[in-house]
């Protein structure tokens, strides 16, 4: 399902969280879908189960997943909170990129024109990736 | 689960372990890190009840271990040099283990040696170091320990076997909440494997921490300013290490990422990057701030 880069500087539980967040945000993992169990994942990826537990705990705290004792972890249906955080992150990223473009001497209206040529995706349904 | 309190051990005039405290939770993989001669092996031997501490206590689940065969049945120790009886084969060793450890699982034993394709009838003394180590893992895992104490366990194993052994250990940790205490001076290897670490140097434990906590606690910043800020920029953070190249500052800073972020941004940096640190880097700087010679620690 996913691979972990053991040579990366990013801590393993953060890598796991990011991968799972991506899967949830992009709707690859649907609402109420069950996540792989800690044991299965630990065995599959040869990762310390406590590390996986920690990633799941963090994801639950951030509202991406919920857990039912004795049954496992599932993808949360509530996406509003997630979207807000993600939006904030993307906006900052955009600011940084546009800032750099402007610094490199691209005129502002050209940037605006570029944005205008982009089409808005249709809302709802199963996204567009 | 494993608790060592104020443990000290002296050999002749040499103090190998000085007033050490170690706490390992059940189902945890605890990495004991440190330089050669830091006292790791002695401490592990005390915890597995092979060496008696001069002072202090070592307990597993609240029970002392030394000279307690009933407690020792659940604790297995793999020393840094594999040891087998003279002229024995894997099968002969297995029958010894079976007699000593009442939770011995023969089926598991067969599965394991077939998996590692070791000849169970061959003399262990004729096998290579790596194969002998595989043999000790086979015997140990078949004895179904609750606590596994490993001294430099991956030494001499090729990458494939190494990964397989790690996977087997992780299965036991996640399926039966086995507790692992493992020593190493190879930080890179411990980074993926452990969830808690203790660092030893010259007979003492410098600190023990949750590994991820340790990693999120320290970050490396790269900042550049159009105009250099005043001293409050550095004094407002817990800076462990600082390097300045032209206008670019590289700082190793302790503290919560959010707090650091806010602090740095308030000075309006032109460039600002945060890099997570590797375990090796954390040690280098942490030890540096305690005044230890770092080049000795990282092998």
TrEMBL record, chain A:
Q: Which domain of life is it from?
A: Bacteria
Keyword annotations for this protein, in alphabetical order, are: DNA-binding, Transcription, Transcription regulation
Task: Write down the Gene3D superfamilies for this protein, in alphabetical order.
Answer: Winged helix-like DNA-binding domain superfamily/Winged helix DNA-binding domain
- From the Swiss-Prot or TrEMBL record, what is one GO molecular function term? DNA-binding transcription factor activity
Q: Coiled-coil regions in this chain?
A: none
Location of the HTH gntR-type domain? 10-78
Q: Is DNA-binding one of the keywords?
A: yes
PROSITE patterns reported in the protein's UniProt record: HTH_GNTR (PS50949)
Write one Pfam family the protein is assigned to: GntR
Record has Nuclease as a keyword: no
Enumerate the CDD domains for this protein.
WHTH_GntR (cd07377)
> What InterPro entries is this protein classified in?
Tscrpt_reg_HTH_GntR, WH-like_DNA-bd_sf, WH_DNA-bd_sf
What protein am I looking at?
A: GntR family transcriptional regulator
Q: Which taxonomic lineage does the organism of this UniProt entry have?
A: Bacteria, Bacillati, Bacillota, Bacilli, Bacillales
Automatic annotation (TrEMBL), chain B:
Q: Does the keyword Zinc apply?
A: no
Kindly give the Pfam families that the UniProt entry links to this protein.
ABC_tran (PF00005)
What SUPFAM superfamilies would the database entry show? Answer: P-loop containing nucleoside triphosphate hydrolases
Tell me what this protein is called.
ABC transporter
Record keyword Signal present: no
Q: Check the record and name the CDD domains matching this protein.
A: ABC_DR_subfamily_A (cd03230)
Q: Name one GO molecular function term.
A: ATP hydrolysis activity
| Lineage top rank: taxon | Bacteria
Residues in ABC transporter domain copies: 2-227
Alphabetical list of InterPro entries matching this protein: AAA+_ATPase, ABC_transporter-like_ATP-bd, ABC_Transporter_VariousFunc, P-loop_NTPase
